Amino acid sequence: MSKVIGIDLGTTNSCVAVLESGDARVIENTEGNRTTPSVVGFTKEGERPVGLVAKRQAITNPQNTIFSIKEVTKAVVTVPAYFNDAQRQATADAGKIAGLEVERIINEPTAASLAYGLQMKSTNGDTHLGGDDFDQAVIDWMAQEFLSSQGIDLRNDPMSMQPSDIEEVILVGGQTRMPKVQEAVQQLFGKEPHKGVNPDEVVAIGAAIQGGVLAGDEEVKDILLLDVTPLSLGIETLGGMFTRLIDKNTTIPTKKSNIFTTAENNQTSVDVHVLQGEREQAVYNKTIGRFRLSELPPAPRGMPQIEVTFDIDANGILNVSAKDTATGKEQKITITASSGLTDAEIDQMVKDAEAHAEEDQQKREEVETHNRADSMVYETEKNLKEFGDKVDDASKEKVNAAVARVKQALEAGNHAEIQSTTEELTQVWHEVSAQMYQQTAGADPGAAAGDPSAADATAEPADSDVVDAEYEVVDEDEKKDKS
User: Fold this and answer.
1) pTM of whole model > 0.70?
2) CATH class of the domain defined by 229-355
3) Structurally, what CATH architecture does the domain formed by 5-29+70-220 represent?
4) DSSP 286-345
5) Which pLDDT tens digit goes with each residue over 99-149?
6) Residues of 123-146 as b/e, b for ≥16 C-beta within 10 angstroms?
7) What is the enclosing helix (H) or strand (E) of 6?
8) Which residues does the annotated region (Disordered) include (predicted)?
9) What are the tens digits of pLDDT across the range 440-475?
């Protein structure tokens, strides 16, 4: 059985490990070192020094010195947790170009937790933080500047997680071996940092363990690596709302489908607007893709069934598809560079969602009330046109008047008025439905027992749970309950 190695492509140094007899072992380079500087150079003589040699000659040859990786056959490659789909795909492509068979792409903190035997709960962090970065000094400076200008010390924000809430701190990366770093960690958290595995090697060891799992190594057959999604994923639905298909911190790989429908009569195409974020309104979330499902057969609104599927593979790459269940027509998209989010954007999106939670919920309720009212008007007019001969003129006038009041409320945009007029229309329609049922049953006793037209005639206008593809989701459980 071939071996699968684990590679940590570090900002400063790279490390390679392999699973042997159930234990992850770091592979030394040609100089006998367990880590290799992530550097390659190109000299005037045509030579290509790698690692420590390349790092040394960089002083005199900086223009021709770059970062790179060592050639291997099979590999599990780690990337920062917030790498977007384009970056992950580019990493995989780089591996293929270098002659690698990339078995899996996993997040660096996930690999580190795997090395320690920890369960992955959620992921949060900075995409670009690496061994050469001293972000803490910059953060302290920014916090001090903010304190000077705003009078607020963000470092002592009582609303955020406190150091005392942290049970254990694990150090990952060669720079964390600095005594001053360890001293600072101890002072901040009030406890000694965990140093059970060499910080230089922990990510590569975790990747090697995952490689052993993928290769079917008996020593690690009971280990299962589960990563999570950093933000919720969904589409825009009727009224500009964000309908989630995959929630934040969902274990991947994962796949989720929902049924959507059209918002207008005779609609022949559906635009699918794919979003990432935590806000209830689509406009405040990040657009990561768009595509159109066209050539749909003309049909009344609410009738077409469009199945939208979100599929995230083990490498965290998202594929979205939309399929018309009647015709089988389908369109797909693989999310690419448009999904990129900076660390600042991610932090801001989460904070905005928390700060505007009440406001967003109110907006969602208003939109849902508007959608229900619009659906009630449409279904009432449709049923009254189809079964109006079973209703007396006085009842028709009563229904039409109630419909007119709902339409006026919708035009005015008054939420309370929309609610009250919709409830009034519902009550009026219940009374008329009872009248239609009695007349139908009297004219044809057999129809009341099971004739489909009789059932349709007495049916209340659908308060549809189908998401109109420009917008509203079918809740299959609720449909079963209603039926």
Assistant:
1) no
2) mainly beta
3) 2-Layer Sandwich (3.30)
4) EEEEEEEE--PPP--TT---EEEEEEE-TTS-EEEEEEETTT--EEEEE--GGG---HHH
5) 788 888 888 888 888 877 777 676 665 545 555 556 677 777 888 887 787
6) beebbebbbeeeeeeeeeeebeee
7) strand 5-9
8) 354-378, 437-466
9) 665 554 443 333 333 333 333 334 444 454 443 334
